Amino acid sequence: MGGCFSKPKPGSCRPTVELKIEVVLPEKERGKEELLAGGKGSPRAYQGNGTARHFHADERLPAPHPYPSAQDCVEAAVCHVKDLENGQMREVELGWGKVLLVKDNGEFHALGHKCPHYGAPLVKGVLSRGRVRCPWHGACFNISTGDLEDFPGLDSLHKFQVKIEKEKVYVRASKQALQLQRRTKVMAKCISPSAGHSSSTNVLIVGAGAAGLVCAETLRQEGFSDRIVLCTLDRHLPYDRPKLSKSLDAQPEQLALRPKEFFRAYGIEVLTEAQVVTVDVRNKKVVFKDGFKLEYSKLLLAPGSSPKTLSCKGKEVENVFTIRTPEDANRVVRLARGRNAVVVGAGFLGMEVAAYLTEKAHSVSVVELEETPFRRFLGERVGRALMKMFENNRVKFYMQTEVSELRAQEGKLKEVVLKSSKVVRADVCVVGIGAVPATGFLRQSSINLDSRGFIPVNKMMQTNVPGVFAAGDAVTFPLAWRNNRKVNIPHWQMAHAQGRVAAQNMLAQEAEISTVPYLWTAMFGKSLRYAGYGEGFDDVIIQGDLEELKFVAFYTKGDEVIAVASMNYDPIVSKVAEVLASGRAIRKREVETGDMSWLTGKGS
After folding, report:
1. Which residues form the domain of 164?
2. 358 and 302 in one domain?
């Protein structure tokens, strides 16, 4: 392959696809394989204007040698066998690195000590049912293999050798693995010789967010070696979208979930700035905005959502933004520096943006229809405590009102007029008032949409059309531990999990979605964590000190705890998530007493 090539002309016949069979070794043997493909395939990134970008043959992923020599390893006694009780974890020094040592059912396990997602110390997490759950964002790792079992994040932990001699626990690890602190699972490579040239693909994924990327990676991890095409409206390869509103200055390369060499190495083709306008399920074909047609065998729909915009007078003035891309976020910061910023909407996106801008802007104002921020999600009391934190950081709130007009001077925003008749000075405005599923392109297809435009799927992420799956923010699905209630959960972690389940069922593995929802937000250097599904809660039981922002809030419906939120109370949210994941119900009376010893995770 390699070199430039043009895409097939619209309507042209697709060339014959030559198929080859690749023998996939069992997981134990596959682990010995080098991570890097030796081939020089050059997957393109198809642009909306018809040009092609392709990767250079000399771009390589770093691949650790499968058989490290003695000088590449470090081995040492890290503790006495009686130093750890069953169910305990300890961070131990090994050479110039650290290792997480776990004792479970009398056996010792040694793993990477940091969560590959954002680097959380796993020793402060929760050990349960043969896995350790991250204290920050809830990712789960199998202690026997180091494999990632629940999300967020893409990579697994390194697993190190353990031996017991003369009552001492010895750990042996490669120096490189100690430094890397993350392990990308062994993946198959694309061996279809027509990849990149043909107008057909085995798997087409519409949307390159967390759901789309995890689906593609899972297919490769499971040994799938045929063509995968991932298409996105974005101009960038898949990136960490939740970071946009938390770190508006971040550049696309800092947000990238995988480097471009990764996609080349594993033959995952990414078509950027590619808009699907029609899905023809009868002929298994999609049509792009520029007329390009692509046939598929299996289809994943993960288009995400589109932000709602203001419909008031003056909505067309300049310097009014929704935060959808890195370019949006970067422009907001540039325009806000030393000037007046207004944020419309006091949900997660709006409040994260407001928090970030306080150190950049001259003034930051928040406009919200509810009485307090986060009211529907976190309740009145928690919302008010967070609002006070913002007010202490110079944020001005205009509550129980909305925007009636955006006024401009020479075409650029100058004032935001509220229905309460107040006028707020504004040089830049960020709108965070919710989103709608980006499923308009499916309305003429036979794929079912509900009245709000969401794609209903079953537990296997299947739509009503065989061979068509859906995942991410645009779906409703049965939430197992809430009696299979059909819900939409637009969380980053949930999109990961759904992408994996969709991939497994493309391969006929009959997997079902069962993850407990987990989300987080960060404002003024403080993190709030949340697990469960709290819609319809009728009471909030708070333990700790709301004023000090050191608390845990249990959301109950009837006699049952359905969600939990906390600040400065780790690892309580991960512990609750683990209890809910085990299938056990938590009763209201258990959390009313204030005795939370039943939830305390072990770690030292």
Report:
1. 73-184
2. no
